[in-house]
Amino acid sequence: MSKKISYLGEFEQLILLAVLRLDGDAYGMTIRQTLQKIANRSSSLGSVYTTLDRLEDKGLLTSWVGEPLAERGGRAKKFFKITGAGALALKFALNSTESMKAGLEPLLEKP
Known about the structure:
111 residues, mainly alpha, Arc Repressor Mutant, subunit A, 5 helices
């Protein structure tokens, strides 16, 4: 029996990649900063959290709430981790993109 693959949009892929990259320190602000720094992608914190919620609803992420912090006014951070299904969906999406791109490199370099 084959597993159902969740198809991912481009921003969902970037969010999952950021969560993987942050390895245990993935919460809204660090994910947003990673998108800006590494992918050169500006995004609102709201769009990051909306996408995180959607990915969690799809079963591609799990989350937990850390301890409340005084420097955050007693608020806790919500951390995220990719699930096995999330890793599978991300791998499928990245492989699909690579397959579609294969052989087009010369065309992509044209102005």
